[in-house]
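User: Hello! I'm new to structural biology and keep hearing that structure can be predicted from sequence alone. Could you demonstrate with Septin-domain-containing protein? Please show me the input and the output so I can see what each looks like.

Assistant: Of course. The first part below is the input, the amino acid sequence of Septin-domain-containing protein. The second part is the output, the predicted structure written as tokens.
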Amino acid sequence: MASHIGIDNLPEQRRKIISKRGASFTLMVCGESGLGKTTFVNTLFSTMVKNYADNRRRHAKQTDRTVEIELTKAELEERFFKVRLTIVDTPGFGDYVNNNDSWMPIIEFLDDQHESYMIQEQQPQREGKIDMRVHACLYFIRPTGHTLKPLDVEVMKKLCTRVNLIPVIAKADTLSQHELQKFKERILQVMDVQGIKIYCPPIEEDNPTAAAETKDIIASMPFAVIGSETDVETPDGRIVKGRQYLWGVAEVENEEHSDFKKLRNVLIRNHMLDLIATTEQKHYEAYRAEQMETRKFGEGRPKKLDNPKFKEEEEALKKRFTEQVKTEEVRFRQWEKRLIAERDRLNKDLETVHNSIKELEVDVESLQGASIGSRSHRR
């Protein structure tokens, strides 16, 4: 499968390092359905990397209330340089009325990949390790023009501690430039208040051109993108990837319309190596250090709730168990009171019998004394 991945833009030394690491890159796309995640991925790699979902299943899945983890693997090649690409999608996320704990399968997946790699590192033979750690997570934000939803805030707070988080405003052509800029400012304000840390590419101060380009990329965050696999003709006769409207053409790679090129530079051109290195040196090491502080060597990681749809069932079982325990406690207290009352009654009866016996003993002694006295008097 051939694609313009732009790896040749990397310096020779960096390309060797990537090759040494196995030339594998794992990208996660997360967000509500209908935000164009599949279209964006296929546009990014200029080929059909990921197939489109069957939207007819979307309504049938409402009763399941589950978030799935879907993997798509591809091998991209350019000028005999291969990159093993893994796309991680999360269908079902954010699609329901009650989205409590809908992010749990995503968090579990990220932790599981760190755990799997850590276990492989502990083996005597560490060659041929399978590395499925996620190097970047694109979180797609619905272009409401207002601010982040509580679900977005909650999920990104959990993601940013585990993976290189890159927020993306989907369908940027639905907002004007002024609305888009205000929307970005509100998002950044919320992220700052909530302590959400997003990935920022390093600035190479020794290269003024690259430094200026990186600063421009950072200033454009969160990225507002347009995805399209369709070729359209612009009014000036150019054939470009974009979307045709009555007012004109929204071009995917036009930086006045979209931040697509900047995001592509971050992911697969200039900063792929840093994404891989940051995953290794920051997120994986943080996970490894945390696990080594709280676990014994060789001990398995305690699993959290595997599927959020079981959480309500678990809560219902806990509630029913608690009610049964309370009922049994009431029955026990009542039985204990009856038992104590019966014990007191038996003790009183026993005391009465003892008193009667004592009285009888006194009467017997009196009778014996009287009998002995009468015998002595006769003599």
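User: So the tokens describe the shape?

Assistant: Right, they're a compact way of writing down the 3D structure. Reading them back into a model, for example: Strands lie at 24-30, 70-78, 81-89, 136-141, 165-169, 223-224, 231-233, 239-245, 248-251.
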